[in-house]
Design a protein that fits this description.
20 strands, alpha+beta, 32% strand
Length: 397
């Protein structure tokens, strides 16, 4: 399937065997009770009391132990052993303070003594001349509903505190051979900071999702309000939205994006939001965009190479696992590919329009076999609503 995804990313990595375990998932920093706290269940990971470490310093034994493990630059009160979706098994999240030897604030992910990923720190341009003061809070949760663990930091430079949000991605060791990516969301971080009187993880979560995590939404209206709030903070004035019916049930899908550039699509099921299309780009490189047959669970994409000499029509559906699945890719070649290399070579130009062959999933097929996949009529998926229009629509009963 020839789809163009507008996703960029950065990275992280770590896990060392020792007798300490601290959980920070889905919470602000929790002050450890001792150097070897008892193991906690999954339910215990939910925050009952959220504490900022700058007001509640950890005990010295904990601080000394982490510094011995990870060096004197380690910000031990914000070092955690956690499970991140991007890695198998537990890793250590280790933030490192600036020093003469190592320069700026940065973070590492470590597993079994190996640094899997180093993440550069983020400082807003307005604070570029200020010195690092403190890392005040850390939280790990899926901010953007894509199924991957993200990192939320509260930092202070000089006397100014700000949010820093890093989206996590799992490429499954894909074409670049990198299994985990993390990318700071500068505009989102700046807009979150500007909206809050006091920058804390709990206030960030209240702003983005009303304090609810994915799986806790009462209905699709509440869920889509949270997603649209997040996207408006990400994209600013360029943000657009829509509600369309794709998969045949009575709950619409949410569209976000920027008309002519990219779209994302979300669906709702039993308290959860699922990301179906993540910044799928179009309008360039031969990609005409994405269409849907209302209520028939059929999506269509036209793409082309060599100014239309090769045309791809991809039919897709929303699968039971809340993912987009390819039903068929139809490839129409309108020139004689004499050497079989799949490219339009100079000596083949004269055959354009005089020759035609069609393939379905790589197998030669007739036009009659192709039309069975068409569930039309189709409409283009466009984020044509403003945030205010979307919220008005969501409030209709």
């Amino acid at each position: 399937m020839r789809l163009f995804f507008a996703v960029a990313v950065l990275a992280l990595g770590m896990n060392t065997a020792c007798g300490m375990e601290r959980n920070a998932e889905n919470r602000e920093t929790i002050v450890p009770e001792s150097i070897s706290p008892p193991k906690q269940t999954e339910e215990a990971n939910e925050p009952e009391v959220s504490l900022e470490t700058k007001d509640n310093p950890p005990d010295n034994l904990q601080t000394d132990a982490f510094k011995e493990m990870f060096g004197q630059d380690c910000i031990s009160e914000q070092t955690f052993e956690v499970e991140l979706s991007e890695y198998e098994g537990k890793v250590y999240f280790v933030p490192l303070a600036p020093s003469e030897k190592n320069g700026d604030f940065r973070m590492q992910i470590i597993q079994e003594g190996e640094v899997l990923r180093e993440i550069n720190g983020y400082v807003p341009e307005s604070l570029s001349g200020e010195a690092f003061t403190s890392l005040d809070a850390v939280s790990f949760y899926d901010v953007n509903y894509d199924g991957h663990t993200d990192i939320v930091l509260v930092e202070t430079y000089g006397s100014t505190s700000f949010a820093a949000v890093y989206y996590g991605y799992d490429d499954d060791g894909g074409e670049y051979g990198i299994s985990a990516w993390f990318m700071v969301q500068e505009r989102l971080s700046e807009n979150i900071t500007a909206r809050l009187e006091e920058v804390t993880v709990s206030e960030i979560r209240n702003l983005l999702g009303g304090g609810k995590k994915n799986g806790e939404f009462a209905d699709y209206r509440e869920a889509y309000d949270a997603v649209s709030t997040l996207f408006a903070l990400e994209a600013g004035e360029e943000s657009g939205f829509n509600l369309i019916y794709v998969d045949g049930d009575d709950i619409p899908e949410l569209i976000t994006g920027q008309t002519g550039y990219y779209v994302s699509m979300y669906t709702y099921d039993n308290g959860n939001v699922y990301l179906l299309m993540d910044h799928w780009g179009y309008g360039a490189m031969g990609n005409a965009g994405y269409e849907y047959a209302s209520g028939k669970n059929s999506l269509r994409n036209y793409n082309s190479d060599y100014a239309g000499a090769i045309l791809y029509t991809t039919y897709m559906t929303v699968g039971s696992g809340h993912t987009i699945e390819t039903v068929a890719e139809i490839k129409e070649v309108s020139f004689d590919d004499a050497n079989g290399n799949g490219c339009l070579d100079e000596e083949e130009y004269d055959s354009i329009g005089k020759y035609s062959v069609t393939y379905i999933n790589g197998k030669e097929a007739t036009q009659e076999e192709c039309v069975v996949y068409d569930m039309g009529p189709y409409e283009y998926i466009e984020p044509s609503m403003s945030l205010e229009e979307l919220r008005t629509k969501l409030n209709e009963r």
